[in-house]
Amino acid sequence: MRNLFHDAPRTALTATYWAFVIYLMLPLMLMMAMSFKDASFIAFPISEWTFDWYVKVMQDKQFLEAVIYSILIAAATTLAATTIGTWIAMLIVAEGIKGQAIIFALACLPAVVPGMISAISMRIFISSIDMPTGTAAIILGHTVHAVPFVVVMVLTRLRTMPGNLVDAARDLGADSVVAFFRVTLPYLWPAIMGGMIFCVLLSIDDFVRTFFLGGYKPTLPMLIFAKVQGGMSPEINAMATLVLLVTAAVGLYAEYKTRRSRTR
């Protein structure tokens, strides 16, 4: 009886965990299943299965252009956000810098501001500096949103770094720049890699800021949104499934590389 009461919380926790997993996975499984339906509408049951929708998506010039455009924006966002976020993290832990708590709070502020408010404020900002909507404005908005995640990940790794590593490098004749690239940067690389993956996924998935800051050329979320306005179809499910599989693969690969780098 004692063992029964002892195992009850663990059993309840396990049941809650699997219920949550089913809650997350079931809609995704239904979405993927509907992408194979041999009909132009979404409804059960699925009488026949087909890959025709995937063939149609991969031959869709508009879809391919949106994918390339989204990747270019994500690459530029990742480069900018990683550079700025790493610099801010280094600034927060640097000696002799006052107001480090304020710097950290301001750096993380974009992560807690609602997306709609952030998008509206960015639209007002680019209008005030006469920046046209389009690629540059989207990259700016995505970068502001992604920087806090890089700061948190790099700062967490940076605070575990033994201070004597940099001191030893300087004792051996390395200046600040050489010590950073030879000692600090390799130590931070797992966190930087994780932050870069975060930036890529956030940028590709960002719809609200793209909607307010974008021009006439659609990104992938904007294209899917436009197609949804005409009604759901297996073609949209096929697009969403491809995006899901690619982002999941990128996330799993990043997790593998991060764990491997930390082990080394």
UniProtKB/TrEMBL annotation:
<keyword id="KW-0812">Transmembrane</keyword>
<keyword id="KW-0472">Membrane</keyword>
<keyword id="KW-0813">Transport</keyword>
<feature type="transmembrane region" description="Helical">
    <location>
        <begin position="179"/>
        <end position="204"/>
    </location>
</feature>
<dbReference type="InterPro" id="IPR051789">
    <property type="entry name" value="Bact_Polyamine_Transport"/>
</dbReference>
<comment type="similarity">
    <text>Belongs to the binding-protein-dependent transport system permease family. CysTW subfamily.</text>
</comment>
<feature type="transmembrane region" description="Helical">
    <location>
        <begin position="236"/>
        <end position="254"/>
    </location>
</feature>
<dbReference type="InterPro" id="IPR000515">
    <property type="entry name" value="MetI-like"/>
</dbReference>
<feature type="transmembrane region" description="Helical">
    <location>
        <begin position="101"/>
        <end position="126"/>
    </location>
</feature>
<feature type="transmembrane region" description="Helical">
    <location>
        <begin position="66"/>
        <end position="94"/>
    </location>
</feature>
<keyword id="KW-1133">Transmembrane helix</keyword>
<feature type="transmembrane region" description="Helical">
    <location>
        <begin position="12"/>
        <end position="34"/>
    </location>
</feature>
<keyword id="KW-1003">Cell membrane</keyword>
<dbReference type="GO" id="GO:0005886">
    <property type="term" value="C:plasma membrane"/>
</dbReference>
<protein>
    <submittedName>
        <fullName>Spermidine/putrescine transport system permease protein</fullName>
    </submittedName>
</protein>
<dbReference type="InterPro" id="IPR035906">
    <property type="entry name" value="MetI-like_sf"/>
</dbReference>
<feature type="domain" description="ABC transmembrane type-1">
    <location>
        <begin position="67"/>
        <end position="254"/>
    </location>
</feature>
<dbReference type="GO" id="GO:0055085">
    <property type="term" value="P:transmembrane transport"/>
</dbReference>
<feature type="transmembrane region" description="Helical">
    <location>
        <begin position="138"/>
        <end position="158"/>
    </location>
</feature>
<dbReference type="Pfam" id="PF00528">
    <property type="entry name" value="BPD_transp_1"/>
</dbReference>
